[in-house]
């Protein structure tokens, strides 16, 4: 039923796992850094102030250098965040939607104690024109908070496919409240079709299997983010956290030029004790493969979502209700394949 079967011996040891919680492999560190930038498109405080004021900017595409340029000039009449002190410390941030994970964010410097900041800065993206034309530009203004709880001051979204590229002049645009299309762009990353099964030790006969096994059958993924007109070259990575070592790491083959890839790949992890299922988390992430670097597209985490692993607080034990229910069904229906269709998300 699957074209690739891999079996990984995975011995849980509570004493060995404790230090690994805080020390990720280089591969895992890249997941964390990319995911952080994805989430930051809408991390912050939206309820404290109403969007108001205007922003002046211009757009240009440098054909010679294959570079998209956002000329951020200034803002006027922004909302006041700290009413007691009558101040805002604004900066401008841009994303290309829906491809935030790949392109990352760009932002200007912070201008302190002003609701009329002047920037005169250029935010640059190295990107092919054909790819740019299937994106939207999200430009937002934020108040910079020293404690990290930045406040949203307004935004504008530009459909680059219909933009007049002969217009290189600076123009004023009204700032608007948070847009629904941008929110949906963050949430919708595709859907993974998979099955999982737990085989307890000795459940198939005397000492068969000798230790518990978790079987993961990655079938296919639908509706991935289309990073290029030709589609994406995707593959799936798998870890059983808290172990991020090479022993835990597995991946599928790359499926080229397809936003609906069929993987049909099975992975078996042994070395499980039944009680380990409460503290472990299967992380499946989908990536776009390129020569120099891979780009995060979305993922799922299967576990109980308690925030704890072997008594230690960890940020990756954050499974959604759907993911938790899927994992619980596997735990209660041993030796049976549990099928699921789970939405990919930012991790």
From TrEMBL:
<dbReference type="Pfam" id="PF00168">
    <property type="entry name" value="C2"/>
</dbReference>
<protein>
    <recommendedName>
        <fullName>Synaptotagmin-like protein 2</fullName>
    </recommendedName>
</protein>
<dbReference type="InterPro" id="IPR043567">
    <property type="entry name" value="SYTL1-5_C2B"/>
</dbReference>
<dbReference type="GO" id="GO:0006887">
    <property type="term" value="P:exocytosis"/>
</dbReference>
<dbReference type="InterPro" id="IPR035892">
    <property type="entry name" value="C2_domain_sf"/>
</dbReference>
<keyword id="KW-0268">Exocytosis</keyword>
<feature type="compositionally biased region" description="Polar residues">
    <location>
        <begin position="1"/>
        <end position="12"/>
    </location>
</feature>
<dbReference type="InterPro" id="IPR000008">
    <property type="entry name" value="C2_dom"/>
</dbReference>
<keyword id="KW-0472">Membrane</keyword>
<feature type="domain" description="C2">
    <location>
        <begin position="188"/>
        <end position="317"/>
    </location>
</feature>
<feature type="domain" description="C2">
    <location>
        <begin position="51"/>
        <end position="173"/>
    </location>
</feature>
<dbReference type="GO" id="GO:0005886">
    <property type="term" value="C:plasma membrane"/>
</dbReference>
<dbReference type="GO" id="GO:0042043">
    <property type="term" value="F:neurexin family protein binding"/>
</dbReference>
<keyword id="KW-0677">Repeat</keyword>
<feature type="region of interest" description="Disordered">
    <location>
        <begin position="1"/>
        <end position="27"/>
    </location>
</feature>
<dbReference type="GO" id="GO:0070382">
    <property type="term" value="C:exocytic vesicle"/>
</dbReference>
<keyword id="KW-1003">Cell membrane</keyword>
């Amino acid at each position: 039923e699957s074209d690739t079967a891999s079996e990984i011996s995975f011995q849980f040891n509570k004493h060995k796992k404790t230090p690994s919680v805080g020390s990720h492999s280089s591969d895992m560190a890249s997941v964390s850094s990319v995911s952080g930038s994805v989430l930051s498109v809408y991390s912050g405080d939206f309820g404290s102030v109403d969007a108001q004021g205007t922003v002046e900017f211009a757009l240009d595409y440098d054909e010679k250098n294959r570079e998209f340029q956002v000329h951020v000039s200034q803002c006027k009449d922004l909302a006041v965040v700290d009413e007691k002190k009558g101040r805002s410390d604004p900066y401008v941030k841009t994303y290309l939607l829906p491809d935030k994970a790949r392109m990352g964010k760009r932002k200007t410097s912070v201008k302190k104690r002003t609701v009329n900041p002047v920037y005169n800065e250029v935010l640059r993206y190295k990107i092919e024109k054909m790819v740019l034309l299937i994106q939207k530009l999200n430009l937002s203004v934020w108040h910079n908070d020293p404690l990290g709880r930045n406040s949203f001051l307004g935004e504008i979204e530009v459909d680059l496919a219909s933009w007049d590229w002969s217009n290189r002049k600076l123009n004023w645009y009204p700032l608007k409240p948070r847009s629904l299309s941008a929110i949906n762009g963050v949430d919708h990353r595709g859907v993974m079709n998979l099955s999982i099964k737990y085989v307890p030790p000795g459940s198939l006969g005397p000492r068969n299997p000798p230790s518990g096994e978790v079987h993961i059958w990655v079938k296919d993924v639908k509706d991935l983010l289309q990073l290029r007109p030709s589609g994406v070259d995707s593959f799936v990575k798998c870890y059983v956290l808290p172990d991020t070592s090479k022993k835990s790491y597995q991946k599928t083959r790359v499926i080229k030029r397809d936003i609906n890839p069929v993987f049909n790949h099975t992975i078996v992890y042994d070395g499980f004790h039944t009680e380990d299922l409460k503290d472990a988390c299967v992380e499946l992430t989908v990536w776009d493969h390129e020569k120099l670097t891979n780009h995060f597209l979305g993922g799922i985490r299967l576990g109980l979502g308690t925030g704890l692993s072997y008594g230690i607080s960890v940020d990756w034990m954050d499974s959604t209700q759907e993911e938790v229910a899927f994992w619980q069904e596997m735990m209660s229906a041993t030796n049976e394949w549990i099928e699921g269709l789970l939405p990919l998300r930012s991790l």
